[in-house]
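Exercise 7.
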Amino acid sequence: MSERANIADDRNDARPHRSLDSVRDSIHASPPSVQPPPNTPSQSDTSSLPFAHEASVRARVRSLLGTSETQFEARASAKSNSNNGIPMDTIRAIQTDLRAIATRLEASSTEPYKALSSDIEELSESVRRRDDTISQMQEEIADFESTVVELRGKRDRAEAMMLKAQEELGQW
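Solution. The predicted structure, written as tokens, is:
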């Protein structure tokens, strides 16, 4: 047996089952001496070859692991009815929880953006109102300036008329 197998055997002395390494080393060290059952299909029938020696292989693995038939069958059925020994009900519950968490994360991640979007819309409306107010004020300023220009023109004409009137009075 290899050094790894010896170390594994030392570690597993207190346990009734041998390690996978020691089982693997045992399988490679000594070829199986179990003969196929007499009613096995011929070598040309390849469709059922993988299952031809299933009983003998299972017996060999059971003997190497040091387990009884019922322990071996219980482990095999537990593995086939679950994922890596985890019951399917547990896996389904975890999947449901993960979906709920994902939904909450998606909702919570979009809420700040919705609030920000609302704030941006309010600010945009405020800017539009301010721009309208500025435009109105600019129109009023332009009207006021034209009124000032008009009034200055009237004042200048009035002063000119007054000067002309004074000159006419002074000539008398």
